[in-house]
Amino acid sequence: MELAGKVVVITGAAGGIGSALARRFADEGVAGMVLADLDADAAEALATSINRGLTRAVGCDVTDPAQVAALVEVAQESFGPVDLFCSNAGITTGTGLDTTDESWDRAWSVNVHAHVVAARAVLPSMLDRGAGYLLQTCSAAGLLTAVGDAPYAVTKHAAVAFAEWLSMTYGDRGIGVSALCPQGVRTPMLEAGLARGHAGAHVTALSGEVLTPEQVADAVVEGLAAERFLILPHPEVATYQQRKAENPDRWLASMRKLISRVGSTA
C-alpha cells in the first residue's frame, strides 16, 4: 500500500508510535488524517503541529462503538472514504495473577475489543469499494510473551489472532491487514513501566535494541508498501518466534531462566 493520496485514521495518536506514524504519513503525502486519542487536547496539538489543513483531531475512547463510528464519520466527511485505519491504542498492567478483574476487562477492551470495534466501523465501506487496509498494533508480546504482565501477553496474542482472522476472511476481497509487532520502543508506555519497576519493562529494555518511535514508523511505511502481514521493526523477533514454534519446551525453559534473572514471577 502506497500512502500518497490516502485517507488515514490513527488511534492512540497523541504520543509514542501513534504520533510518529502521523508525522511520517504526512511526509509520505497522505490526502488527510484523523488523529484520535483519549487525550483530545494532545491530539489537537499534534494535528496543528503537522498541518491543520491536512489533519483533524478527535477525542475518542476506542472501546466505545459510538465514538469510533463517529470517528470514521469525521474522516469521511473531512477527507473522503478511509483507506487505512491504524488501531494503535494499547495499555499495559505490569501484573500477573494479582490482576484485578477490572484491569483484565480494561486490557481486553483496549488491546483486543477496540480492534473489533474499529473493524465493524470501517470495514463495510471498504468492502463496498473492494479496497482498504487495517494496521493493528499488536506488539512482539503477541508472538512471544510479556514477562511480568499476564494481561498484556494474553491480550496481545488475541490481537494477533484477530488480525490473522481478518486477513484470511477478507484478504481476497481487497482488504489488506498488517499486525505491527515491535519489541522495545522508547515510548511513554515503556518509560512508565521502567519508572514503576515492572519486570517486563526492564526485560524489554534489556532484551535488544530499544527503537525510537520514528524507527518504528519507518518500518511501518516499508511494511505497508510490501503489504506484509507481520511488520517486525525488530527483525530478531522472527527468529525468536521460529525457536518458540520449533521447540516450545526449550523456549519456555529459557523464559523461566530469564524470569529467574530478573527476580519476578508476577
Keywords:
266 residues, Rossmann fold, NADP-dependent 3-hydroxy acid dehydrogenase YdfG, Sc_DH/Rdtase_CS, oxidoreductase activity, acting on the CH-OH group of donors, NAD or NADP as acceptor, NAD(P)-bd_dom_sf, oxidoreductase, seven-stranded parallel sheet, alpha/beta
Structural notes for this entry:
By secondary structure, the protein is of the alpha/beta class. The chain has a single domain (7-262), classed as NAD(P)-binding Rossmann-like Domain (Rossmann fold), CATH 3.40.50.720. 54% of the residues lie in helices and 13% in strands. It contains 10 helices and 7 strands. It has helices at residues 16-27, 40-50, 65-79, 101-129, 150-170, 188-195, 199-206, 213-226, 236-246, 248-262, and strands spanning 7-11, 32-37, 55-59, 84-87, 132-137, 175-180, 230-231. A 7-stranded parallel sheet has the order 3-2-1-4-5-6-7, with helices on both faces. The mean pLDDT is 92.
Structure at a glance:
The chain has 266 residues and is of the alpha/beta class.
- Strand-residue fraction? 5-15%
Q: What's the SSE pattern?
A: EHEHEHEHEHEHHHEHH
Query: What is the CATH superfamily classification?
Result: NAD(P)-binding Rossmann-like Domain
State the name of the first-level CATH class. Answer: Alpha Beta
Give the strand order, joined by hyphens, for the main sheet: 3-2-1-4-5-6-7
Strand segment tally: 7
Subunit arrangement of the protein: single chain
The biggest beta sheet reads: 7 strands, parallel
**Mean of residue pLDDT values:** 92
Helix content percent band = 40-55%
Number of contiguous helices: 10
CATH architecture: 3-Layer(aba) Sandwich
Q: Are there runs of 5+ residues with pLDDT below 50, and where?
A: none
